[in-house]
Design a protein that fits this description.
With 187 residues, the chain is mainly α. The chain is elongated.
Length: 187
C-alpha cells in the first residue's frame, strides 16, 4: 500500500466507495418502501436489507484497512474550515458505516422470533445472530430489540444527514467552486 500523496484516490478506494454508496442507497430505498410492498414480499425485503447491511459492514472493514495504509489525496484549494469539516464528515460516515450494520445486527439478534427464522446472506450463506443477545431472557431481549431498533433509526437519520452534506459538499466544490473534486473519486 502506498503512502505517497496523489491527486486521486486509488482504484481500490474508488471501487469500495462506489459499491458501498450503491448498497447504502439501495438499502435506504428498500427500507423506505417496505411498508408499501405486498405482504408476501416484506420478508424478502427485510432479509435483503439485513444482507446488504452485513455486506456493507464487510466493505467497511476493507475500506478501513485500506484507508489506514493509504494516504488520501490532499484537499487542495479548500479553506481550513472546509478541510476540518471534510475530515470530520468522513470520520462520521465511517463511524456510521460500522454502527448502522452493527446496531441492525443487534436489533435482529434480539428479535423474539430470531431462532425460528435463520438468517442468511442473500439466501445463500448462513449468517449467525449475536449469541450473547440470543441467549438473554425473553423480556430483556424484547426491551433490547426495541432499544436497538430505535438506535438503528437514529443512526440512520444521522447517516442521511451526513450523506446529504457529503454529496452537497462534493457538488458545491465541483460546480460552484469549479475545483474538480469529483474526479478524485471517479474512475
Amino acid at each position: 500500500m502506498s503512502s505517497q500523496p496523489s491527486h486521486r484516490y486509488s482504484s481500490i478506494a474508488i471501487v469500495l466507495h462506489w459499491v458501498t454508496a450503491v448498497l447504502m442507497l439501495g438499502n435506504i430505498v428498500l427500507i423506505w418502501v417496505v411498508d408499501e410492498l405486498p405482504d408476501e414480499r416484506v420478508r424478502w425485503a427485510i432479509d435483503t436489507h439485513k444482507s446488504i447491511g452485513i455486506t456493507v459492514l464487510g466493505l467497511f472493514v476493507l475500506r478501513l484497512l485500506w484507508r489506514l495504509g493509504t494516504r488520501p489525496p490532499a484537499l487542495d484549494g479548500l479553506s481550513a474550515w472546509e478541510q476540518v469539516a471534510a475530515k470530520w464528515g468522513h470520520i462520521g460516515l465511517y463511524v456510521l458505516l460500522a454502527a448502522l450494520p452493527l446496531s441492525g445486527w443487534l436489533h435482529d439478534s434480539a428479535w423474539k422470533d430470531a431462532a425460528a427464522h435463520p438468517m442468511s446472506l442473500f439466501g445463500l450463506v448462513p449468517w449467525p445472530r449475536i449469541g450473547i443477545v440470543m441467549g438473554l431472557e425473553p423480556g430483556l431481549k424484547e426491551q433490547l430489540h426495541d432499544l436497538f431498533g430505535e438506535l438503528h433509526e437514529w443512526l440512520a437519520n444521522g447517516f442521511y444527514l451526513l450523506f446529504a452534506l457529503h454529496v452537497l459538499g462534493a457538488l458545491k466544490h465541483q460546480f460552484l467552486d469549479r475545483q474538480k473534486l469529483l474526479q478524485r473519486m471517479w474512475f
